[in-house]
Amino acid sequence: MPIIIPKELPAAAILKHNIFALQEQRAIKQEIRPLKIAIVNLMPQKITTENQLLQLLSQSPLQIEVTLLKMQQHESKNTSSTHLEKFYVAFKAVSEERFDALIITGAPVEKMPFEMIDYWQELQEVMAWSQTNCTSVLHICWGAQAGLYYHYGIEKVLHKQKLFGVFEQRVIEAHPLIRGFDDFFMMPHSRYTGINEAQLPLAPLEVLVTGIETGPALLVSHDHKNSFLLGHLEYHTETLKEEYLRDKAKGLKTALPQNYFSDQQGTVINRWRGHASLFFSNWIHETYQRTPYDLQILPTRTGYYIGNEWEGGHRRQ
Length: 317
Prior knowledge:
By secondary structure, the protein is an alpha/beta fold.
């Protein structure tokens, strides 16, 4: 089934040529509960990130209803206030609601201490709320570092240089999130920081994917609620190229993204698209299997669905 989006959203014009997007007017006539997913979009190029995530979410056979969330304590410099006011809502507007899933994106603030970020207090409120009001939470890149720090006290570490390019990843543990994955696959990364691996054994986490250059790249909590993706599977083919050109325009000494350009002319061959689609499909499927039909009985941190079975004895309708 299709993803539900406002017909005026910029992504709608792109998605209609690639997947089946259902406008709200038609969706309300269908007798089925959509999977409710909220997205905290912290990326500077918000419309680009919307397009990337919505395209991947829309490939699921399930009907999905997306709510875009903004941080009130932060003023976006790259996205118009008109766009934000029209398509985004503040967290406080939905803080009493419950969702099947939440996505927290990356953000270009890796070098700053978490406590120095203007929306850190508000983001902490969102992360606390997510543990009782969402079945699954997917943290991406800086969002993953923020989640690991907030939930488990795992600190970030500064790299000597920007980790920038497409890197080989190795699957080291079987898990529904990476069902169907090759033993080795490629994933884009773009970050100045990593995580303190020495602190991982102290947290209720499982490392599913790692890489020689990247370190742990995908982690999941033991209760299956929280997933932490340190890379950017959602990136489109040209995204790293666009980031590189922006860095050069700012006078930054960013090296060419590794394992990315296939020739001197800057041609890019996408080597992660298939695994990106598979990962998001797996995540949506697992969320659907574990979430209750009635969100008012949404599991908390002390209980969760396993397949179709609720550990307290209730069944998904």
